[in-house]
Model the fold of this input.
Amino acid sequence: MNESTRKKSRNIARGLPVVAIVGRPNVGKSTLFNRIVRQRKALVDDQPGITRDRIYAQASWDEYPFLVVDTGGLQEKGRNQIDEEVSRQAIQAIEEADLIIFVGDAKTGSTAEDQLISQILRKGNKPLLYVVNKIDGPEQEQLLYDFYQLGVSEILPVSAAHGHGFKKLMNRIVDELMILFGESPIEEETGEIIRLAIVGRPNAGKSSLINRLVGDDRCLVSEEPGTTRDSVDTEIEFRGKKYQLIDTAGIRRKGKTRKKIEKISVIKAIQSIEKCHIAILIIDGELGITDQDCRIAGYIFERGKACIIAINKIDLVKKDPSRRKRLLEETRYALKFMPYAPTIPISALTGEKVLKIFPLVDKIFEQYLTRIPTSKLNQFFEEITFKHEPPMFRNRRVKFYYATQVSTAPPTIVAFCNFPDGIHFSYKRYLVNEIRKKFSFDMIPVRLIFRARTSKYHT
Done:
């Protein structure tokens, strides 16, 4: 794999490596995809050809993140134009991928199409894992032998539907990605431009805020919800610093996204969260915090993004101090799972406090790119684990050997210990809170990953 291919694939979403699942139609690619991403994201049916477009989703195993791509079935020659387009989409996914998972079907055995696909994949000179699906237990693993005629030395038995062999497959995926990208697959940020995604429900004032910040009617503004349907990137400069503002379509509830164009808009909005440094969540101050606002905040939280909570239309409640106070309190309570995210009341219409967003962004971004020296981090870990001992696990005390920061944006720390599975979430929360206090990470998320020292990749 050459360097340009690697960089191309890593730019697709958040700098993560790309794992493509390929094979002929109806071998169980989408079922395996759903199991890897831990949700029913790809449509699954016994009828061949259900998957047509490439489907992307973020996944992780042992706290190691990557992007998975489900593809339609590769065929030697499409029966019609749609089949040919499906194959073209799959080939493009192969070109984008850093690691490819070939999936065969144990029930039908190796076929001529499998042979052809295997030849195509080997020409790409990329890391390959060969998987035979629909093997529900060890007693069926003899069905693997037919696939060794593909000329490979290792084939992994898997039941995507029932989970047999799944753990071994995921460990192999992470092993391959760690060889390619090291302990952390996320590239360091250069700090040249700060990317801000403006997100929220339809008609909360996202485009109005963009126009206020830019000082121009750059984005279409209308009373009709859903005016913005695609993500719009606008670069501005404020006091010598560059920012990229990403206006997004309003994210509706799933039940409200029946039209195809609206579903695509939601996907693009979530992709905008993926590629930003800081998400500015716009709350409609006239309506107050809603379940959908919390759901959008959850998207931001799950992706480890910093966040500013901007309560818009504050001019409408300005004359009622008690209502304004209640609005702020209710917002902070509803979003208590992101206690680090600062809240600012604004009015995109009048411009009240809008420019105060930039100093908040600068402070957050400075924390986002902070790197802690390893010696200082290990000294700190020694102090806090002495102050509050780690829990017991299997009649033995969890012991930390050393810690290191593997990436920034957000700060990601890997702590090596004897029993990663023995660390209760409450003790992890204690460690994260202590890290925040010690290193002034009061406005950003912090990732803390536990790994066993015994891994062959650790020295």
